[in-house]
């Protein structure tokens, strides 16, 4: 199939395999005789943090190495990201989207109204891989959404990339996940209502940057900066499971308060505790260390 | 003021003492050792109130200096060659953090086919680190330049580290007559250090976290401008020093008998003295020879050079270092500075690995430059004192 | 301040705030948060290249409410030396703390650490030991235990995981005879608090070595971080002790040694280990156990290992446990 330059942007969270998804798509395109590239946004993101990856596909050799600003296709591996950052920014008006969600396209507000495929990739991944690594499942839906590459090439690409790294069995289960996603994907049009403003940022000119790579506590351009300024990162958006506290059972030992890596468990005057869910990443340590079983971990980020 | 007969290293040590340096982390390396040994004596004799910190390496010495400077005190260290190379990683943190550390580098050859003798490759390799670099001609200038370095580094318009480079052995271990200023005079010239950013829990500052692409470029340009703007302050400090002590050095560069010269040589470090003598000789023969003494390699005097080169038919550039297959680093920079003026620029490599630059070599250089000035074709770069025909 | 001994005595004021970017369940974040609570506001922090700097200090913000500096990987002992010298000259009493990873301590930073310890600099050096270069994507370090998978000790057809045993950094530091050195676990709360408090109150070179499980690096479940740290102590993989003015003292003794497999089975990095390798690790552990806790009580786990008891622990001569 002949195509002009086609650009794809993947949004996921560290650990979900967004980069591997981009690479696999690129490999599938190469199998079809096209030129392709895939690369991550070179950040330092840890597990759970939002990450971005890119892929480009073209009939001819691709010389551009910059990031993708106006994608033809948007792939969202984690639907909660829609509320965290303007993922659809720059998406072409005639672009397409693939989203990991249980909902139907018409129920999704992407911020740009485009052709869209939705697929419950997490459920599929749990079933086939026993882990929420959704990258192969989402690729099945990508093939379904836009006939960029055939399912046959995608299967070959998955076998090659995953088989090489994790062995034959992994290749097989990942192919199965992709095939099931291809079947289950729902195609329709999503909504374009939410505003795609990015979060406020302080972007000083060279004259404005304080000298010495040094900052005191303060607010710059509407943004808290300096020591302690990291509080503006609401890492609670990473959460996929949520603690539930039963105060009646709490023995006020404060082990959870000590053990929480986020410092999001707050200690009250009387040594009972409360959670600041703005920061809770849902690691589950609190429930594990509680000697009174006063904390339960329930599925889902909203708790 | 007192007159002493001291080595270049000791001249530097006196300057660091007169500057009331507060923290001196150091690691020994020939030919720098005399500096830190003398400072250790000053401190142990109670003549200087400072912390002498015997670091476990030059990398650590610079790291300690960084901590001390960020902690808000005046820090001084000294090194040479391999030691400077070991510091390389840490050198780059200093200018961007705007820490006004002063360091003496006693130039010495680096790597293999090297020994303890003078060559400029060690400091030339750090010319893009953001440090200001001054090269000195004699022991008096070593002392004066070190004192000026503190004033320059700590000036609020500059806030950059300064490296004072002196030729190993030729200065470091040679004694000369040096006027050592009195403490009160120096105190008047060099005010107390008022740090700009300090690690102090009373007013917490975040200094040098990871800087993502959204910010780094602006910071780098800001540093670029700071290095460039330091030119004015260098001129000011030099003039101020002249007023206070009766000696000044021309700032970024100095000239000798250049006014009506047809051709000239550009030198830095101790070769300058020899070149002065050569110019006198040529002048006595009626030849219109002149000299440009480059003092600062950073900031580089692009504009000053263009002004001085006006009227010159040819300018030879002496390098005591090699930029392999391109002559020397000073030559390439001078050639870049003069690319739009008609002056012919020739490169001259000499004194490599500590080989003495003899008066004959100097005559040979001037002779070549003179031929270039007459319109003869000469090699772009010539090695002087080399056995065997050049290729 | 009254002496702290329990969680309840700890200040509730966070100096290492929420909003950092560590992985969910990061053990290092648990350690740093509590160390900073105890050290309090009058502290100056240096962090070398490591996970910690990336997750806590990205321009224009940081998670530390105290003064903070970063410059490089291998110079924690040196930069903190300089900061402390300057602060002392300026009449500040602030605790200068270096928070370094195991790579930045055991390996590339060992020289600067040794220099600072030998000069008895008045600094607190904390080694956050997650047993590998995690920031660069889980490579082995001198702290990685025997058998463990890392990306540079892959489980291959010929060689399975790391072949060398963990370097004994505490013994190396103790050989410098510092005023205080202690090993800590995030699962032994009161012991942890007492040691940080003690380190804070002393002068001169102080060293704290904290085991900080790493979720992706150890291939463990995010909720099990503290439990893994606890099992490390119960199996002898980690020993809680302190060396104070030359005297070594174990601060917590498990009732009975649990087999190392209890520890290994919670971590994917050991999943491939075969019986022979596990036995070799167990043998090493038994020697270490008897060294620290004495050999009057034969541990059933070790009784099966003939050689175990007789093997001498390499630093036995240097460290005298009381
Ligand atoms: C001189 C140098 N070499 C290599 C690196 C790359 N590097 C940065 S952090 C790191 C690993 C840090 O490991 P560790 O100290 O154990 O800290 P962790 O990230 O595991 O917490 C490496 C190798 C560097 N920054 N500087
Ligand atoms: S990689 Fe490990 S040490 Fe680094 S942030 Fe994640 S859990 Fe913590
Ligand atoms: Mg580590």
What does this entry look like structurally?
The complex is a heterotrimer of chains A (303), B (391) and C (322). With 303 residues, chain A is of the alpha/beta class. Chain A has helices spanning 18-31, 121-129, 135-145, 151-166, 168-184, 255-259, 285-289; strands spanning 6-13, 35-40, 50-58, 73-76, 96-100, 115-119, 186-189, 214-216, 218-220, 223-225, 241-245, 265-267, 273-275, 295-299. In chain A, the strands form four sheets. Chain A has a seven-stranded mixed beta sheet, covered by helices on one side. Chain B has 13 helices and 16 strands. Chain B starts with a strand and ends in an 8-residue tail after the last strand. Chain C has 322 residues and is α/β, with parallel strands linked by helices. Chain C has one domain (7-274): Thiamin diphosphate (ThDP)-binding fold, Pyr/PP domains (Rossmann fold, 3-Layer(aba) Sandwich). Chain C has helices at residues 27-39, 51-56, 76-89, 103-107, 110-118, 169-174, 189-201, 215-218, 225-235, 260-264, 275-293, 300-303, and strands at 43-46, 57-58, 61-62, 68-69, 95-101, 124-129, 180-185, 206-211, 241-244, 247-250. In chain C, a hairpin with a 2-residue loop joins strand 9 (241-244) and strand 10 (247-250). Chain C is globular and about 60 Å long. The two termini of chain C are 29 Å apart. Chains A and C meet through strand 10, helix 6 and helix 7 of A and helix 1, helix 2, strand 3 and helix 9 of C. The complex binds thiamine diphosphate, iron/sulfur cluster and magnesium ion.
What tags apply to this protein structure?
heterotrimer; B: 391 residues; alpha/beta; Rossmann fold; 2 domains; six-stranded mixed sheet; 13 helices; globular; C: 322 residues; binds magnesium ion
Low-confidence stretches of chain A: none
Q: Count the strands of chain C?
A: 10
Q: Structural class from helices and strands of chain A?
A: alpha/beta
* Discrete helix count of chain A: 7
Would you tell me which CATH topology of chain C applies? Rossmann fold
Morphology of chain C: globular
Highest CATH level, the class of chain C: Alpha Beta
Order of helices and strands of chain A: EHEEEEEHHHHEEEEEHEEHE
Counting copies of identical and different chains, the oligomeric state is heterotrimer
What sort of overall outline of chain A do the alpha carbons produce when their principal axes are compared? globular
How is the largest sheet of chain C built, in terms of strand order? 4-1-5-6-8-7-9-10
| CATH architecture type of chain C | 3-Layer(aba) Sandwich
Heteromolecules bound: thiamine diphosphate, iron/sulfur cluster, magnesium ion
């Amino acid at each position: 199939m002949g195509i002009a330059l086609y650009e794809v942007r993947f949004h996921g969270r560290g650990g979900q395999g967004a980069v591997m998804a981009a690479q696999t798509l690129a490999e599938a395109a190469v199998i079809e005789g096209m030129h392709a590239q895939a690369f991550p946004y070179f950040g330092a993101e840890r597990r759970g943090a939002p990450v971005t990856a890119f892929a480009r596909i073209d009939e001819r050799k691709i010389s551009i190495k910059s990031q993708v600003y106006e994608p033809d296709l948007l792939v969202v591996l984690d639907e909660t990201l829609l509320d965290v950052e303007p993922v659809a920014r720059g998406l072409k008006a005639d672009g397409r989207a693939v989203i990991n969600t249980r909902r139907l396209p018409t129920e999704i507000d992407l911020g740009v109204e485009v052709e869209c495929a939705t697929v419950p990739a997490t459920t599929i991944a749990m079933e086939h891989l026993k882990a929420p690594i959704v990258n192969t499942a989402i690729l099945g839906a990508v093939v379904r959404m836009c006939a960029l590459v055939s399912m046959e090439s995608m299967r070959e690409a998955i076998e090659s990339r995953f088989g090489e790294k994790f062995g034959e069995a992994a290749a097989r289960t990942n192919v199965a996940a992709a095939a099931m996603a291809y079947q289950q994907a729902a195609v329709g049009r999503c909504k374009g209502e939410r505003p795609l403003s990015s979060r406020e940022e302080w972007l000083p000119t060279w004259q404005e940057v304080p000298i010495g790579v040094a900052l005191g506590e303060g607010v710059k351009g509407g943004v808290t900066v300096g020591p302690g300024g990291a509080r503006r990162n609401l890492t609670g958006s990473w959460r996929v499971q949520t603690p539930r506290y039963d105060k009646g059972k709490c023995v006020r030992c404060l082990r959870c308060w000590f053990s929480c890596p986020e410092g999001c468990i707050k200690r009250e005057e009387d040594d009972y505790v409360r959670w600041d869910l703005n920061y809770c990443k849902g690691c589950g340590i609190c429930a594990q260390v509680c000697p009174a079983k006063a904390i339960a971990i329930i599925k889902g980020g909203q708790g | 003021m007192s007159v002493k007969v001291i080595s270049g290293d000791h001249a530097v040590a006196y300057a660091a003492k007169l500057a009331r340096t507060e923290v001196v982390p150091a690691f020994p390396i020939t030919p720098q050792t005399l500096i830190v040994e003398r400072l250790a004596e000053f401190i142990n004799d109670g003549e200087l109130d400072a912390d002498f910190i015997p670091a476990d390496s030059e990398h650590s010495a610079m790291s300690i200096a960084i901590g001390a400077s960020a902690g808000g005190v005046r820090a001084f260290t000294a090194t040479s060659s391999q030691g400077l190379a070991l510091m390389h990683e840490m050198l780059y943190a200093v200018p961007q953090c705007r820490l006004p550390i002063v360091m003496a580098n006693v130039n010495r050859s680096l790597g293999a086919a090297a020994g303890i003798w003078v060559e400029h490759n060690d400091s030339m390799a750090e010319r893009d680190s953001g440090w200001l670099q001054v090269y000195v001609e004699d022991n008096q200038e070593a002392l004066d330049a070190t004192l000026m370095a503190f004033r320059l580094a700590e000036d609020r318009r500059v806030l950059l580290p300064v490296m004072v480079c002196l030729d190993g052995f030729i200065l470091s271990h040679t004694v000369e007559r040096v006027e050592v200023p009195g403490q009160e005079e120096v105190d008047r010239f060099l005010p107390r250090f008022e740090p700009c950013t300090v690690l102090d829990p009373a007013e917490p500052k975040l200094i040098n976290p990871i800087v993502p692409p959204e910010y780094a470029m602006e910071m780098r340009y800001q540093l670029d401008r700071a290095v460039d703007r330091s030119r004015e302050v260098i001129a000011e400090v030099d003039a101020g020093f002249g007023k206070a002590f009766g000696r000044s050095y021309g700032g970024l560069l100095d000239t000798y008998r250049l006014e009506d010269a047809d051709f000239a040589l550009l030198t830095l470090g101790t070769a300058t003295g020899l070149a002065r003598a050569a110019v006198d000789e040529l002048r006595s023969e009626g030849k219109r020879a002149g000299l440009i003494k480059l003092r600062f390699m950073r900031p580089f005097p692009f504009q000053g050079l263009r002004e001085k080169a006006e009227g010159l038919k040819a300018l030879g550039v002496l390098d005591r270092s090699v930029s392999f297959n391109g002559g020397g680093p000073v030559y390439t920079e001078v050639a870049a500075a003069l690319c739009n003026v008609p002056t012919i620029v020739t490169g001259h490599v000499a004194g490599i690995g500590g080989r003495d630059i003899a008066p004959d070599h100097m005559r040979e250089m001037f002779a070549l430059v003179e031929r270039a000035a007459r319109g003869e074709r000469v090699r772009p770069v010539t090695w002087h004192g080399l056995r065997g025909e050049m290729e | 301040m009254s002496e702290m001994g329990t969680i309840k005595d700890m200040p509730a004021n966070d100096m290492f705030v929420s909003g950092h970017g560590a992985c969910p369940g990061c053990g290092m974040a648990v350690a740093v948060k509590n160390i900073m609570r105890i050290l309090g506001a009058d502290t100056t922090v240096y962090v070398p290249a490591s996970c910690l700097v990336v997750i806590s200090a990205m321009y224009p913000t940081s998670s530390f409410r105290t003064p903070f500096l970063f410059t490089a990987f291998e110079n924690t002992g040196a930069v903190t030396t300089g900061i402390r010298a300057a602060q002392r000259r300026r009449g500040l009493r602030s605790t200068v703390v270096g928070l370094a990873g195991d790579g930045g301590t055991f390996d590339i930073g060992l020289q600067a650490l040794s220099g600072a310890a030998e000069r008895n600099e008045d600094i607190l050096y904390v080694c956050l030991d997650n047993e590998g270069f995690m920031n660069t994507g889980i490579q082995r370090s001198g702290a990685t235990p025997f058998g463990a998978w890392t990306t540079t000790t892959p489980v291959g057809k010929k060689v399975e995981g790391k072949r060398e045993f963990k370097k004994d950094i505490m013994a190396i530091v103790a050989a410098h005879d510092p005023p205080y050195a202690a090993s800590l676990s995030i699962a032994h709360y009161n012991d942890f608090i007492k040691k940080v408090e003690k380190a804070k109150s002393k002068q001169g070179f102080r060293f704290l070595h904290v085991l900080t499980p790493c979720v992706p690096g150890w291939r463990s479940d995010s909720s099990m971080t503290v439990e893994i740290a606890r099992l490390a102590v119960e199996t002898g993989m980690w020993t809680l002790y302190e060396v104070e003015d030359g005297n070594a003292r174990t601060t917590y003794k498990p009732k009975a040694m649990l087999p190392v497999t209890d520890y290994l089975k919670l971590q994917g990095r050991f999943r491939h280990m075969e019986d022979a390798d596990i036995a070799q690790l167990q043998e090493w552990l038994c020697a270490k156990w008897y060294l620290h806790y004495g050999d009057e009580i034969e541990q059933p786990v070790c009784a099966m290992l003939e050689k175990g008891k007789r093997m001498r622990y390499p630093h036995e001569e240097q460290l005298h446990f009381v």
